[in-house]
Amino acid sequence: MPKDTHQTIRVFKTPSADQPPRHFDRWWFLLAAVIALIVLLITLVPDPYMRILRFVSDGIWVTFYVTMISFVLVLIFGLIGGLGRLSKVNILKGIATTYVEIVRGIPLMVQLYFWYFATPGLIRGLGGAIGSEALTNYKAEPIFMAIIGLTFCYSAYMSEVYRAGIQSISKGQMEAARSLGMTYFQAMRHVILPQAVRVILPPVGNEFITLLKDSSLVSVVAVADMTRRGREFQAATFTSIEPWIMVALLYLVMTLFSARIVTWIERKTRLER
User: Which partner from 48, 73, 145, 267 sits 20 to 30 angstroms from 203, CA to CA?
Assistant: First the structure.
């Protein structure tokens, strides 16, 4: 029997009650300072900052909705892509690798333009070829196409994160699990992936924050997110500074809060040494 098969599977322990308390994350103060600055602006200068906040408030929800739905889908399809990259089946590995290399080489904005403007034309052309009235009259729904575009692009990057995380786990872990009678999928589910998830939490959190910021690009495909609403306020009032100060601060609040939550989750799931 190979020597590596005698390695034991890591056991994850929850922090005990007698552990010393964690240090407070001081970056919460920065988040509080940004929120305080927003409150100060809308209190001391309600015109135009309060007007801007009210105007873009529906865009905040759209930004949050598009980002969260896209990120959940990215986690799912990124895992599929990562496993495909590690597959021993050459066809699956080739498809996954080709997808990653192509998508990473095309700017996100170009991909969003393609999904919103080119894809409906292809669908309508297909409908005319097969005589389908429903496909011939197809019209793109902006938010749906934006979510598809973000998911399709970021799944390629996330698949690389998963691949790196899985490969960072010692091969002995898989061999030890298989020696206990687990199938490959059982070992991957119960042994390898739980360890890999803890390894990839920082880059996954970084991908979420990047996705949140890049969601501003969906404004070019008729999605009324914060960026588009800020541009509409600028066009309606001919102000070029105040709208973007408020939009920038709102994005900063969302990204700082997301980063703090990721840090908290990382600490909670950190392995005991």
Answer: 145
